[in-house]
Amino acid sequence: MTPEVHLINVFPADRNGGNPAPIVAHADGMTLADMQAVAHAYGHECGFVCSPPANSDYDFAFRFWVPNHEMEMCGHATVGAVWLLDKLGLLPKDQLSIWTLSGRIEARVSRDEAHRAHVEITQPQGLVETLLAPDIEAEILSVLGISSNELAPLPIQNASTSRVKTLIPLRDVAVLDSLKPDFRRIEPLCERIGSTGLYPYAASDPDARQFDARQFPRSSGYPEDAATGIAAAALAFGLLELGLVSADDRTVRIRQGRAMGRPSEISLRFRHNAEGQVQGCWLGGNVGFVEEKI
C-alpha cells in the first residue's frame, strides 16, 4: 500500500530547528515491512497510528520505526502524532490513552488563547544507574574524542524511562558543541554498556533548569538526532538523582540539535502522586508541519 505520510516538525526552538517526524495517521493494514519502508524512504524516526487493541480501553495504538528497526517508543513521534490527529480532527477527546510496545502512554492536549494545540505525553518513573568502571569511562571518552578534564565532576549514568541512554556530563556547552565522535565505535560501546545511545550534556543555565545535550544513537541508521524526547526524559531523572534539579513541577528544558543546525527544545515536568512522590514526567514542546507528502 502507499500510505499518506505527513511530515511533522517536533520540538523546534526556531524556524530552522526541530526533529522531522514522518507520521502515518491511518496505518491500519500496513505490514511491518511497509512501515520500515517508510522509515527507509524518509531516513527519520517514523510514527504509525493504528486502531487500539480489541476490547481494550486504549484510544489508539502507535508503532515506531527507524530505518534499521522497530522501536518500542519514540517521544517526539508520539507528540507529533497526537498533534497531527488533532489537526486532522481525529481526536475523540483531549485526554488519551495510547498503546505502545513500551506500555501505556497518556497524552493530553491543551490550547492557548489563539486555540493552538499543545501536546504533552507521559513517561514513567526513571531508572538511573551510575557507571563506575574506569575502563568504561575511558572508552566513552575515547569514542567521544575528549579527555577526562572535559568532563564535569559528576558520574556517568545509564538512565531510562522507555529506553536506556548513557548520560555523560560535560564541563561546558563549548565542549558539547565541539564533539566529533568516532561513530563506527558507538554501536559496540552501547552494546557493551547496555545502552541505546550516548547522551552527552552540559548545564547551560542551571538556575533556570536549562541543559544542552546531543544524542548519538546506537544503531538507528543515522549518526545524530536533533531532538530526542526519551533521552531528555532519562536526563531529567539523571539530573534529579544528582540533585541538579529538584522534584517540584517547574519545567526542565533540554536543548538539542544546535550542533546539527536544527536547534530544538524539549520541556519536561515531573508528575506526582497524591502523596507528592515523583511517579514520572510530562514531556512536550512545540510542533508544526514541515510539509505534507502523498
Instruction: Kindly state the number of beta strands.
Output: 18
What is the rounded Rg?
Answer: 18 Å
Biggest sheet character? 18 strands, mixed
Rounded to the nearest angstrom, the distance between the terminal CA atoms is 12 Å
Shape: globular
Helix content: 10-25%
- Helix and strand run: EEHEEEHEEEEHEEHHEEEHEEEE
Binned strand content = 35-45%
Q: Extract low-pLDDT stretches.
A: none
Alpha-beta content class:
alpha+beta
Number of helices: 6
Overall mean pLDDT stands at 96
Structural account:
- This protein has 294 residues and is of the alpha+beta class.
- The mean pLDDT is 96.
- 21% of the residues lie in helices and 36% in strands.
Which tags fit this structure?
21% helix, 6 helices, 294 residues, 18-stranded mixed β-sheet
Write the layout of secondary structure elements.
Blueprint: E1 5-10, E2 19-24, H1 32-42, E3 46-50, E4 60-65, E5 70-71, H2 75-87, E6 95-100, E7 103-111, E8 117-124, E9 127-130, H3 134-144, E10 157-160, E11 164-169, H4 173-177, H5 186-193, E12 197-205, E13 210-213, E14 216-217, H6 229-242, E15 252-256, E16 264-272, E17 278-284, E18 287-293
Parallel strand pairs: 2-3, 4-6, 11-12, 13-15
Antiparallel strand pairs: 1-2, 1-18, 3-4, 4-5, 6-7, 7-8, 8-17, 9-10, 10-11, 12-13, 12-14, 15-16, 16-17
